[in-house]
Amino acid sequence: MSEILANAARANVPYAIEYRSRRLDGSFAIVNEFGTFGERSDDAGFATLVDVTILRGREEQNWRAAHYDELTGLPNRSLMVQRMRIALSDAQASHELAAVFVAKIDNFRELNDTYGHELGNRLLQMLALRFGECVRGGDTVARLGGDWFGVLLAGVDTGLSISDIATRLSAAISRPFKIENRPFHLTLSIGISVAPYDGGDPDVLLRAAETAMRVAKNTGGNAFRYYDSAMSIEALQKVHRQNELRVAIERNEFELHFQPLVDILADRIVAVESLVRWNHPVRGMLAPAEFIDLADQTGLIVPLGEWILRQACRQARAWFIEGLELRVCVNVSAVQFRQPGFLALVAACLEEFGFPPHLLELELTESVMLDGFAEMIQTLSRLKALGVRLAIDDFGTGYSSLAYLKYFPVDTLKIDRAFVKEITGDSFDRAIATTILTLARELNLECVVEGVETEEQCDLLRQLGCTIVQGYLFSRPVAPDRLRALLGRPLSALRA
Ligand code: C2E
Ligand code: MG
Ligand code: MG
Asked: Long-range contacts made by residues 474-477, C-beta under 8 angstroms, separation at least 24?
């Protein structure tokens, strides 16, 4: 400062300085001084003094607000990115590594929904403190938003110390958090990217760490994963397929095919199962295995499932009006079934299409039984009250307890084709099929055997007491007009 003043005096130019000065009451003020010296050394100079204490205070506050998270006091994403830039250029100069973590608490949303945001916020604050104890002096722990945290390890020399810190973070969160004398157990999914291997700029490294975090999360959580470039290809493909599926729903690129269910004693078709197909503009007709899981994971099953149900009901009505008492079976995924609006949708369809409700059968897999037992029973009972039939699809492949059959108002068990494939040669498969057929008979349920492809399988099943079968022996799933043609023909003609 004295140098600035000396210069200004020597060259006879104005000057501006800022300094801290003690007020008469002993407090400090920040002062801006603008002045000039006189032309000759004995001339009086002028200076204006401005107290900028409040202004500087506000600036400091603004800076804090822009760079720190209010809830936890941790640096925010923007400050983390700034520090990453510095750390990356330092690491490059000293040939060291820099590591970036993106960490997310497993199931935090459920916790928040159950116990409220207040408690969620307190957990985040406690967690921030624990995280701060896990890193070294020059490292940064940041809150990236929500329950997302970021960690920057500047200048590390081996992968070992990176894993070490990831382990420490996981250990820090695994000690129970006590709030109002109640313990809360949390786990963390962590994704890690390392510069220079995975990229050289903050955005790329954060994105890579996020991708790795999602992989850790999707494979069960409570783990850390390093990024590898195959992940981003996979993630990109998934995003691409997801967009494609969304557009396909808007453009209505789906078709329902129908496969007959045949009563082999009465020799007639008693029902049809609707099976969705995606008429893809480039890849041709796609089977559900190619897209139903993705639709489930992304929630797109909700609009798609609604379209399927309406389309199946429209078809059921058309056949009913023709005088055909043909039951239509519709597959419902667990995600679709759990949608709050599902029951209302079924009721609306029955009302709109006006065919007898027992001509609609909903096929559910055992996975719908996995959670929310009480709620599910309620939904099933309400569906029954509407008069529709319920079937358990792929019976025997999912949930292993039979006890639920006691509580579920189901009408039909469908034996999965896995047990039929080797049924004529494999005594184990035959035993399973026999047991399910007996169980169904004892419980007064209809039993349908899927995947019957040969006369031998069909004969054996008849001997075992099976009456209704479905499979390529009679027909593959076909478009509605082809199915209509099958309905008029004798069954022996179908077996051609
Ligand atoms: P699923 O409900 O168990 O349907 C039976 C599957 O077995 C169908 O495959 C059918 O084409 C096939 N199949 C029938 N007979 C035979 C046979 O004799 N041999 C062999 N090898 N296979 C036979 P698809 O159409 O590929 O459907 C596969 C699965 O996709 C279905 O299994 C169902 O879980 C699901 N799915 C199909 N349509 C829908 C739908 O509209 N909504 C939902 N949520 N899922 C659907
Ligand atoms: Mg099915
Ligand atoms: Mg099945």
From this structure: 474/260, 474/262, 475/259, 475/260, 476/259, 477/257, 477/258, 477/259, 477/273, 477/275, 477/277
> Is CATH 3.20.20.450 correct for 251-495?
yes
113 sits in which H/E element: helix 108-115
Distance 275 CA to ligand 1 centre (A): 6
For ligand 1, say whether the CB of 210 is within 6 Å of any of its atoms: no
For position 3, what pLDDT does the model report?
86
Q: Is 453 in the pocket of ligand 1 (CB under 6 A)?
A: yes
C-alpha dist (Å) from residue 352 to 276, 341, 345: 21, 16, 10
Boundaries of every domain in the chain:
2-62, 70-227, 251-495
Instruction: Tell me what the mean pLDDT of segment 451-460 comes to.
Output: 96
> Candidates 249, 275, 338: which one to mutate for ligand 1, based on the most atoms within 8 Å of Cβ?
275
Ligand 1 contact, 287 CB (< 6 A):
yes
Cis peptide before 477 (omega within 30 of 0): no
Taking the centre of ligand 1 as the mean of its atom positions, its distance from the CA of residue 417, in whole angstroms, is 10
Q: Cα(377)–Cα(403) distance, rounded to whole angstroms? A: 13
Residue 105 CA, ligand 2 centroid: distance in Å = 36
Residue percentage of the chain with pLDDT more than 90: 62
- The ligand minimizing its distance to the Cα of 394 is 3
In short, whether 450's Cβ falls inside 6 Å of ligand 1 is: yes
Task: Grade residue 146 by pLDDT with cuts at 50, 70 and 90.
Answer: very high
- Is the confidence at residue 331, as pLDDT, over 70? yes
Report the alpha-carbon distance of residue 163 to residue 166 in Å, rounded.
5
Side-chain half-sphere exposure of 127, counting CA atoms within 13 A:
29
Going 473 to 479 to 480 to 484, the CA torsion angle's sign is: negative
For position 40, what pLDDT does the model report? 67
Where does 109-170 show beta strands of DSSP type E? 140-145, 148-156
Query: Residue range 450-456: average pLDDT?
Result: 96
More confident residue, 96 or 443: 443
Q: Inform me whether the pLDDT recorded for 398 exceeds 90.
A: no
Cα–Cα distance between 305 and 312 in angstroms, integer? 10
Interacting residues of 150 by C-beta distance below 8 A, sequence separation 6+:
77, 80, 100, 101, 102, 103, 140, 141, 142, 143, 144, 206, 209
Query: What is the 150 CA–ligand 3 centroid distance (Å)?
Result: 44
Separation of alpha carbons 19 and 430, rounded Å: 92
* CATH hierarchy code of domain 70-227: 3.30.70.270
Q: Report the mean per-residue pLDDT for the chain.
A: 90
Residue 448 Cβ contacting ligand 1 at under 6 Å: no
CA distances in angstroms from 88 to 82, 180, 389, listed in the order given:
10, 43, 63
Residue-by-residue DSSP string for 393-407: EEETSS---STHHHH
Helix (H, G, I), strand (E, B) or coil at 433: helix
DSSP letter at 107?
T
